[in-house]
């Protein structure tokens, strides 16, 4: 932390000078999360905040689709992503042409796309969702059949919470598919008192082993409220590190899976981006307008 202090100070000074705000996802490393973030949250919270911030520049502590979502919602602002290569296995798994193919296969069915998608895919969809509102968004769609993209695991987990029939694209989060149900069963044997909390991007058999499942913000709230003596967070492991100080009575057990894309964002490249203006995200307005419709419909339903 001492070595990080000069970066933290430089970023915070430059933020004030450049009228900038840092929106950081819950998976950012603790130096970013605690040192320079102005607002932290899950994907839905960050999207909502992007519509409200007063500063003229947003620095996205997160991956490219999050910065693109901020730009779509606040086109008049400068949105900077400190590393353009911070992608997402889900966003990369599907194109707008794939959405059209699914529409042709299931005529009339509404397309609900996870925010973990490019602007083109959002624009081709009827509405977006995040892990915190997916079941609610699916329930709100007309018709008995809903197309969910691109996360096949999220779709299967949502299918257990709704009466709608769901057909889905078979994309996956490269971090959450690494968790295995038999590993969790092993953990239970050795740590029978530990609470297991999983993100819905995990396969359904993993979620079946969990005591609670929710978005990153939902998981944090659950730990804050219940203060379990021992907890296993079945998600990107920066999450546990970020909230450990807040709940000293809670013991965070392994395993640790990091998202290589989220990890690309560092104090160094945040400072560089803020200093030089490098990493500005642009979305052509005609495309942004269509994508905005899908994101705004979600925000309106929350
Ligand atoms: P949430 O923060 O919306 O739960 O999403 C998790 C995620 O995978 C972000 O990349
Ligand atoms: Fe994408 Fe998974 Fe990384 Fe989130 S954790 S950015 S869903 S690859």
Automatic annotation (TrEMBL):
The keyword Acetylation does not apply. Its EC number is 2.5.1.72. InterPro entries: NadA, NadA_sf. It is an enzyme of class 2 (transferase). Keywords: 4Fe-4S, Iron, Iron-sulfur, Metal-binding, Pyridine nucleotide biosynthesis, Transferase. Its cofactor is [4Fe-4S] cluster. SUPFAM superfamilies: NadA-like (SSF142754). Pathway: Cofactor biosynthesis; NAD(+) biosynthesis; quinolinate from iminoaspartate: step 1/1. NCBIfam families: nadA, PRK09375.1-2, PRK09375.1-4. This is Quinolinate synthase. It comes from Amylibacter marinus. The gene is nadA.
């Amino acid at each position: 932390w001492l070595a990080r202090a000069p970066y933290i100070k430089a970023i915070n000074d430059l933020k004030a000078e450049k009228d900038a705000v840092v929106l950081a996802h819950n998976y950012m490393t603790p130096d970013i999360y605690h040192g320079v973030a102005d607002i932290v949250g899950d994907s839905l919270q960050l999207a909502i905040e992007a519509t409200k911030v007063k500063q003229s520049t947003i620095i996205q502590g997160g991956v490219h689709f999050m910065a693109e979502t901020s730009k779509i919602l606040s086109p008049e602002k400068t949105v900077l992503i400190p590393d353009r290569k911070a992608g997402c296995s889900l966003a990369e798994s599907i194109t707008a042409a794939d959405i059209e193919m699914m529409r042709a296969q299931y005529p009339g069915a509404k397309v609900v796309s996870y925010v973990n998608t490019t602007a083109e895919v959002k624009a081709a969809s009827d509405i977006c969702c995040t892990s915190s509102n997916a079941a609610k968004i699916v329930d709100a769609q007309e018709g008995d059949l809903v197309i969910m993209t691109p996360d096949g695991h999220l779709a299967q987990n949502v299918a257990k919470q709704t009466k709608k029939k769901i057909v889905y694209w078979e994309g996956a989060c490269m971090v959450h598919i690494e968790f295995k149900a038999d590993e969790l069963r092993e953990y239970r044997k050795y740590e029978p008192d530990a609470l297991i909390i999983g993100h819905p991007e995990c396969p359904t058999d993993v979620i079946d082993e969990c005591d609670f499942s929710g978005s990153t913000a939902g998981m944090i709230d659950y730990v804050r409220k219940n203060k379990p003596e021992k907890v296993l967070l079945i998600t990107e492991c920066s999450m546990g590190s970020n909230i450990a100080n807040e709940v000293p009575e809670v013991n965070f057990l392994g395993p640790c899976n990091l998202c290589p894309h989220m990890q690309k964002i560092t104090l160094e490249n945040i400072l560089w981006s803020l200093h030089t203006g490098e990493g500005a995200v642009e979305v052509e307005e005609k495309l942004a307008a269509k994508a905005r419709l899908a994101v705004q419909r979600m925000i309106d339903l929350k």
